[in-house]
Design brief:
Shape: globular
Low-confidence stretches: none
Length: 248
């Protein structure tokens, strides 16, 4: 597993070129991007290439998949990126029934099939709303029941929702490609709950041990609302690298 940077952490730090420069300054060589940045695929790919960073995974929101699918395909090919992730449904888009979530799962499965023709895997990224149970299934379970959809667990959101990440990782071990490495203080609410890695309650040795039994390739350092972007990325990278060294 490699320690990589999630650009959502530095989304307030200027344009894409500025965000990439920040990630490189913090010692990263690998990243996960967020969206198309209102650029054409060639424009976005040129900016990333100039940074010297490798894109291991790329987030695109529902609208980008639905309205700019050809652009998504093109930029993934230009960046030689093997994974696309659908990370979020706005509150007004979220179904309120199991049947509704099955419809979401069907659409994701269709996109996964189309991406698979270009050797790209599609993963779903969880928050807390997709962990709320129906009588038999959570939205996450309904989505992952589709055999061609992978999972990118957000460790912070799993803990915030009251779950043991290691147990859920074991349950879906054959569908995990990467994780968002995010720490949390679940006694807080909203964005006040997020912590730099090592400053929250996540049991990282247990999480990393569980991930070691999966095909997880990247631990993407993330903090939704940090007050110090450089500190969060740089200390997060060092923290996870130490944890991985101890695990070995």
């Amino acid at each position: 597993m490699r320690v990589s940077a999630q650009l959502y952490t530095v989304r307030q730090c200027g344009d894409l070129a500025d965000q990439l420069q920040m990630a490189a300054k913090c010692g990263f060589t690998d990243i996960e991007t967020t969206g198309l940045h209102h650029l054409t695929p060639p424009q976005m790919a040129a900016i990333v290439r100039q940074s010297g960073l490798r894109v291991r995974s790329a987030h695109f929101d529902w609208e980008e998949f639905a309205e700019r699918f050809d652009d998504v395909i093109e930029v993934l090919a230009l960046l030689e990126c093997p994974v696309a992730v659908m990370p979020w449904l706005a509150s007004e888009q979220r179904p309120t029934t199991a049947d509704g979530w099955l419809g979401v799962a069907a659409q994701l499965a269709d996109w996964a099939e189309r991406l698979g023709a270009d050797d790209v895997k599609l993963a779903y990224h969880n928050h807390d709303f997709d962990l709320v149970g129906y009588p038999d299934n959570t939205p996450l379970e309904l989505i992952l029941s589709k055999g061609n959809i992978y999972w990118q667990p957000d460790i912070g959101w799993l803990v915030a929702a009251g779950f043991d990440p290691a147990i859920l990782i074991q349950c879906y071990s054959d569908q995990i490609l990467s994780v968002h490495a995010k720490d949390v203080d679940p006694t807080e609410q909203g964005d006040e709950r997020w912590r730099d890695l090592g400053d929250g309650v996540v049991d990282w040795p247990a999480v990393l041990a569980a991930l070691g039994q999966t095909d997880c390739t990247d631990l993407f350092v993330e903090h939704d609302e940090t007050s110090d972007h450089y500190r969060t990325l740089e200390t997060g990278r060092r923290f996870l690298e130490r944890q991985l060294d101890r695990a070995v």
